Amino acid sequence: MSRLRNFSWNCFAVTGSIDAYLLFKDTEMLSEDREEKNGQEQKEKSKA
Length: 48
Description:
The chain is mostly helical. It has one domain (2-47). 92% of the residues lie in helices and 0% in strands. The N and C termini lie far apart (31 Å). The relative contact order is 0.14.
């Protein structure tokens, strides 16, 4: 996922494209959601 994030940021930096920035933000949010989900799964496993 970081490749897409890096690509979208570089594309935004070079072109100023709003679409590239929005893609960057979407990938950032997906990454944060994934990290949060993994954290919750770890808590559930430690309780068992």
